[in-house]
């Protein structure tokens, strides 16, 4: 499951493949979850792979919720953000 319900500490846990094949599904799941509540943090450690479409989803999240912390990036996410010099968007 790519989007897990917000935990009691109001952290949203993301996981799975954030790729173009799943972009529409992920967008719908994120939209549904964010309509229910606004998390204090989004945990990214479960993201197994990411492409440009997945990156667009995360950047849209950051733009929509600038005060929400993006924490615990997975190795795949760390690698992509380092290559694109976007590490400043993460709140390790």
TrEMBL record:
InterPro entries: MlaB-like_STAS, MlaB_ABC_Transporter, STAS_dom, STAS_dom_sf
PROSITE patterns for this protein: STAS (PS50801)
Domain STAS, residue spans: 12-92
Xref: Pfam families: STAS_2
Gene3D superfamilies per the UniProt record, alphabetical: STAS domain
PANTHER family, A to Z: BLR2341 PROTEIN
Protein name per Swiss-Prot or TrEMBL: STAS domain-containing protein
């Amino acid at each position: 499951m790519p989007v897990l319900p917000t935990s009691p500490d109001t952290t949203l846990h993301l996981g799975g493949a954030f790729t173009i094949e799943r972009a529409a599904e992920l967008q719908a799941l994120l939209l549904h979850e964010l309509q229910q509540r606004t998390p204090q943090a989004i945990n990214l450690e479960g993201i197994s792979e990411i492409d440009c479409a997945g990156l667009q989803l995360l950047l849209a999240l950051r733009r929509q919720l600038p005060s929400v912390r993006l924490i615990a990036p997975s190795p795949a996410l760390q690698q992509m953000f380092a290559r694109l010099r976007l590490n400043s968007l993460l709140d390790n």
